[in-house]
Amino acid sequence: MDVLEITNLNKSYGKKILLKNINLQCKVGEIIGAFGRNGTGKSTLLKLIFGTVKADSIHIKINSKTIFPNDIISSKKIAYLPQDTFLPKEQKVREIIPLFFPNGEDQDKIFYSPQVSSFEKTKVGKLSLGQLRYLELLIIGNLSHTFLMLDEPFSMIEPIYKDVIKDLLLKLKKSKGIILTDHYYNDVFEITNKNFIIRDAKKIEIVDKADLIKYEYLKSNQ
Ligand SMILES: Nc1ncnc2c1ncn2[C@@H]1O[C@H](COP(=O)(O)OP(=O)(O)OP(=O)(O)O)[C@@H](O)[C@H]1O
Asked: Which CATH entry fits the domain spanning 3-214: 2.30.40.10, 3.40.50.300, 3.30.420.40, 2.10.260.10?
């Protein structure tokens, strides 16, 4: 079973300590949810693990083997879904899929995924937010990368596509380990095995909504 281990992660911006001595482990078969108020460093955490933001210190191991931050992208072990879309707006969905998957069999996995036939002829710029996020997740999730860092997969998504996305993530976790962050906490709790909150730069393990209240992410009447 593949394991991603992050230890001794520290990140400051100027005098502000954003993340202090964070340790985190993610195994294939797990979906881990990261919570925290705006600006606590959740997106930064995912980018540090993906290697696109430089840490003050970080040690990343996959199956006990160290991977240096500069080698993460080329190792093709960790994939990252950014908050903002990364697909060109003017191209149709069916033109985009072969750009990521030259092999016909791999393309078919996407073309025959639920819902895709209903929007494959549509230009990316004309997709609903739910269709777009789902398409991005299908692309990222069908790459060979074992670990997925997902920044806000549910944000602003209509309920029907949230369910399609949840089904996809539950299917993907059979062969991947996933760390995701989103403020839509009910959707996150529905699919995660483990959760944590970032508070005062530290990572605190949590289990449920009561903990989100305890750590002042939610008010008790929400
Ligand atoms: N390049 C940078 N220089 C200085 N400060 C930065 C930089 N990038 C991010 N920050 C700050 O770091 C903090 C954490 O940002 P980050 O986007 O990781 O938060 P977040 O927890 O994902 O927030 P949200 O829930 O709003 O998405 C913010 O205060 C942000 O302003």
From this structure: 3.40.50.300
Q: Is the CB of 86 under 6 A from ligand 1?
A: no
Please tell me if the CB atom of residue 155 comes closer than 6 angstroms to any atom of ligand 1: no
- 8 A C-beta contact, residue 177 and residue 149: no
Percentage of residues in the chain with pLDDT exceeding 70?
A: 99
Phi/psi of residue 9, nearest 5 degrees: -85, 125
Instruction: Summarize pLDDT for 21-31 with one digit per residue, the tens.
Output: 999 999 999 99
Predicted confidence at residue 59, as pLDDT, reads: 98
Model confidence pLDDT, tens digit, residues 150-169: 999 999 999 999 999 999 99
Q: Residues 6 or more apart from 137 whose CB is under 8 A from it?
A: 81, 150, 153, 165, 168, 169
Across all residues in the chain, what is the average pLDDT? Answer: 96
**Residues 165/134, Cβ–Cβ less than 8 Å:** yes
Ligand 1: does its nearest atom lie under 6 Å from the Cβ of 39?
yes
